[in-house]
Automatic annotation (TrEMBL):
PANTHER family: P-LOOP CONTAINING NUCLEOSIDE TRIPHOSPHATE HYDROLASE PROTEIN, P-LOOP CONTAINING NUCLEOTIDE TRIPHOSPHATE HYDROLASE. It holds the Pfam family Sulfotransfer_4. The gene is LOC100177270. It comes from Phallusia mammillata. SUPFAM superfamilies: P-loop containing nucleoside triphosphate hydrolases. This is Uncharacterized protein LOC100177270. InterPro entries: P-loop_NTPase (IPR027417), Sulfotransfer_4 (IPR040632).
Length: 272
């Protein structure tokens, strides 16, 4: 493990994921952690994971970004004490505004909602998000809503400040870089001890475009969506078949006769 990103979501975490990939690092972001290591993360959540367990989880991973990494950066660094820590920061007002816009975008996205409801991963996602998004945003509504409801603004801002303060106080000073993505390549590459790439510094998830970017470019997200579409197709076929069998049954015939008789009685009563 080379670097652990301890910055909160909406402080440039998707930009940093792109940066690490450009630097040749094998990076695990939220989706990779959730999709590939869901069961292993549950052990970290309940405190039963050992340092050896964590090292096995990320044996071939160079960098970690986004939730739940930022919430459990201490546990991760205990397992990988040689790793460097980057705390991405952002002006609090712009951070909060961007956070609310991201939530609004996610909660109003029909495709994402459908995947969460019908995908086999949906139940796993709820248990996982209880410890990640639920802890970070406040309240995660259950299936079939699967919506995120944030804390009160003052609480959300206080959590942001407290997190940044905690990282700056607890992280080893020789391992820590407090960084804003607007600073570009130079301070970051100097800290990591790598050459500056001959490419423009990336800027991802502008204007809460994360969902669109992930569905178009992220293989894990595309796989989750495919599972959701397949599940929805199977459910549709099963419901259609069940409806067909019901219509062919004696129960259906009796129900139709009963409805017809009662409709006729109602009409007679209406005409009196």
């Amino acid at each position: 493990m080379k670097v652990i990103l301890a910055g909160y979501p909406k402080t440039g975490t998707k930009t940093m994921a792109a940066v690490f990939t450009m630097l040749g690092y094998n990076n695990y972001d939220y989706l990779e952690n959730y999709f590939y290591l869901h069961k292993e993360w549950l052990k970290i959540f309940d405190g039963s994971a050992t340092n050896e367990d964590i090292r096995k989880m990320f044996g071939d991973v160079d960098a970690l970004t986004d939730t739940p990494v930022c919430l459990y950066w201490e546990e991760l660094h205990q397992a990988f004490p040689e790793a460097k820590i980057i705390l991405t920061t952002r002006d609090e007002d712009s951070w909060y505004k961007s956070l609310m816009k991201q939530l609004e975008s996610a909660n109003s996205n029909f495709l994402l909602w459908m995947v969460c409801v019908v995908s086999p991963q949906s139940i796993l996602r709820l248990s996982y998000n209880y410890h990640t998004s639920g802890r970070f945003f406040g309240d995660l509504s259950g299936w079939p809503s699967c919506r995120l409801r944030p804390y009160h603004e003052k609480v959300q801002r206080a959590l942001y400040r407290q997190h940044n303060y905690s990282v700056m106080k607890k992280a080893p000073k020789d391992k820590l870089l407090v960084y804003n993505v607007s600073e570009g390549w130079e301070p970051l590459c100097e800290f990591l001890g790598v050459e500056i790439p001959d490419k423009p510094f990336p800027h991802k998830n502008k204007d809460a475009a994360l969902i669109k970017e992930m569905t178009e470019n992220n293989k894990v997200m595309q796989r989750i969506i495919l599972e959701g579409v397949i599940s929805l197709s199977v459910v549709t076929v099963l419901v259609g078949y069940a409806g067909y069998r019901f219509c062919e049954s004696d129960t259906c015939s009796k129900l139709v006769s009963w409805v017809s008789e009662n409709v006729n009685l109602f009409r007679k009563g209406d005409s009196i």
